[in-house]
Amino acid sequence: MIELPTEVASYHDIHSRAAFPTMSIQMSPYANNSHAAPRPVTRWMLPLLIGYAVLALLGGVLHRPELSLIAALLLLAALLLPVLRNRSLGALALWLVLAALLLIPALAGRIQLALSALPIVILCALSWLFARTLRRGQEPLIVRCVRVLEGDERLALPGVARYARGVTAYWACLLAAQAIVLLLLLLCARPAGLLDMFGVRAPLSIPRDALVWYPEAGCWIVLVLAFAVEYAFRRWYLRRVPHPPLKRFLLRLVQRWPLLIRGEGAA
Question: Could you give the maximum distance between any two Cα atoms of the chain, in Å?
């Protein structure tokens, strides 16, 4: 190896830094990601999901199926965005199945049936999304949320990583249970349930009104209460760990949700 004289080496170093100033800066592996603007495809995903949630809730409370149908179309549009971004044939096939489950009964004049079946599919998909991250070698979904929103330092605090894994299992089970409840309503509601529609006597007699309001209003109430119960339990269980204010958590969620979708780290 040829050793340059001190004067030549110093000149070469100064000249290189002047020509390529960014080469001398050590960048964090997530520095570009934490402040990067969302990709054009995923930029509209959060507004579409918010619109879906608002219209679905209004449709259930006001008994306006047209609002619920518009909400379902917004959800389909939101789910289509990551499919277009990833260009996955498998994901596209699943999206087409979901769209068919909604649109075919709706076009056949059975809008309520389509709207009742759609939440079951969505809850099953969300439950699977949480549960699949609990497999060995995978990062639990809530652990990823903590890492993206609050950083690795938060995960290193006593009990936080273990609790986050437990919350992932909690949501996987809760969402699956909600899907089962909705399926029972769809099958056993009298009249207008699937079993009643085909002349089969249902093992349970569930009023038709439950099929109308629970999928679009009652289900949301249960999920909101479940979030509130988990939040209160977390503050007690991890009481020796400092907790960020809820407002700050929600603000970071809005700011960093593209990183969460892509599974990247916090800055």
Answer: 95
Question: Using omega within 30 degrees of 0 as the cis cutoff, is the peptide bond preceding 203 cis?
Answer: no
Distance CA 119, CA 72 (A): 9
Quick check: 188 and 229 in contact, CB under 8 A? Answer: no
* Per-residue pLDDT reduced to its tens digit, 201-255: 777 777 777 766 787 678 888 999 999 999 899 989 998 888 777 777 778 777 7
Q: What is the DSSP letter of 26?
A: -
Contact 182, 123 (CB under 8 A): yes
Q: At what angle do helices 111-132 and 89-107 cross, to 10 degrees?
A: 160
In this predicted model, which residue has the larger pLDDT, 167 or 248?
167
pTM of the model: 0.64
Give 245's Cβ-side CA count (13 Å radius): 3
37-89: pLDDT as tens digits: 445 555 677 788 888 878 877 876 777 777 877 888 888 888 888 778 777 78
Give residue 146's identity as a one-letter amino acid code.
V
Q: If we measure between CA atoms, which residue out of 205, 179, 175, 177 comes closest to residue 192?
A: 205
Angle at which helices 141-150 and 160-188 cross, to 10°: 130
Contact 213, 60 (CB under 8 A): yes
Q: Encode burial over 36-55: b for 16+ CB neighbours within 10 A, e otherwise.
A: eebeeebeebbebbebbeeb
Q: Which residues contact 105 (CB under 8 A, 6 or more apart)?
A: 111, 113, 114, 117
DSSP 218: I
Main-chain phi, psi angles of 148, to 5 degrees: -70, -40
